[in-house]
Amino acid sequence: MNINFNFKIGNFIVNKDFIEYNETKCDDPECIKKKVKDFYNRYPFPYLNAFEIYEKNDTLVLEENKKQNMIFEKIVINKIHEKIMKTILASANMKPEELKNKRILDAGCGSGEKSIYCALHKANEVLGIDMSENSLKIANTLKNYLNVDNVHFENLELEKLNFENEFDLCMCIGVLHHIYEHEKVLNNLLKSLKRNGIIILGFYSFLHRIPYYLRKVYIMYKYKSKDAYIKHLKELYKQDYLVINNIDNYLHVYEKAFRITYLVHELEEKGFRIINLNDLKFTNCLRLLIQRKYFFLLAARKM
Ligand SMILES: C[S@@+](CC[C@H](N)C(=O)[O-])C[C@H]1O[C@@H](n2cnc3c(N)ncnc32)[C@H](O)[C@@H]1O
Question: Does residue 248's CB lie within 6 angstroms of at least one atom of ligand 1?
């Protein structure tokens, strides 16, 4: 049975495939994209502690945080990203050692830690793409500092990506749900993979996102303004990445939460086979919900 519906509650629009949250006051793709880009130039993700970003005379200043030893960044990539990346790769039944010799696309790489992690694990070549210039400035500084030459960062909108049969692995983590034209971008990513290539999507799902929406409403009720909440976060956390994580989760200007089976169907229809079918079982989804995972991981192979 195919039931179609579409209704609006405040900034939320609900249809059968996803819940959309849009506070940009735009309804055309270019305008929404610009607001998302402004958001990530102001709050690059995951950003960590290497830089300070502030507004001065109405322009955004990005400065290296001199107090912060860059060695710390390396520790963070090795320790925090080791854990995150192991989970991401496990969704495709992969181990970090299997990154060796692969050509990897990190679509929406942000400040580049995941790309750099893959490069440090001897990938043949990693291409990190993002539309946020400030995120890429951080990525390039980290790359130069850590002296890795098998990773490159490019400033591009994923809507304009034009690769065919190029990559062994494409990671798109925390990105698709901030894209208005997500179908177009998904097609570009799928096309970029070689036969047998693997895509790993990390995205917000209906089920996982609902507790965050409730908290989002509570935050706005309690703090009244975004600035007041950010001030509270800065007092609460010493590490910038914890501040950024909360800003990204609760103060974003545009996001979607997908029905998992909708994306499964999109992938299967385009000739991909889901690798982590087990994770789709309702009990496993529920477990992830209880663990308050940020996003759902879906991995598929091009047949
Ligand atoms: C939450 S961050 C995720 C960063 C990185 N993948 C990670 O997991 O650490 C989302 C990133 O997607 C990028 N992004 C969003 N829409 C994009 C688009 N249409 N084209 C290129 N990059 C985009 C943003 O600039 C941002 O850096």
Answer: yes
**CATH superfamily placement of domain 6-302:** Vaccinia Virus protein VP39 (3.40.50.150)
Per-residue pLDDT tens digits for 117-160: 999 999 999 999 999 999 999 899 888 888 899 999 999 999 99
Query: What residue spans define the domains of the chain?
Result: 6-302
109 pocket-lining for ligand 1 (C-beta < 6 Å): yes
- Binding site membership of 23 for ligand 1 (Cβ less than 6 Å): no
What residues have CB less than 8 Å from 11, skipping those under 6 apart? 21, 22, 23
The response to whether residue 197 sits with its C-beta less than 6 Å from ligand 1 reads no
pLDDT of 238-266, one tens digit each? 777 788 889 999 999 999 999 999 999 99
For residue 72, what pLDDT band results from cuts at 50, 70 and 90? Answer: low
**From residue 217, how far is each of 24, 123, 192, 204 by CA, in Å?**
17, 42, 39, 17
Q: What percentage of the chain exceeds 90 in pLDDT?
A: 65
Choose which residue among 53, 175, 186, 256 to substitute to test ligand 1 binding: the one with the highest number of ligand atoms within 8 A of its C-beta. 175
Residue 49, ligand 1, Cβ within 6 A? no
Residues shown for the chain? 303
Can the peptide bond before residue 46 be classed as cis, meaning omega within 30 degrees of 0? yes
pTM exceeds 0.70 = yes
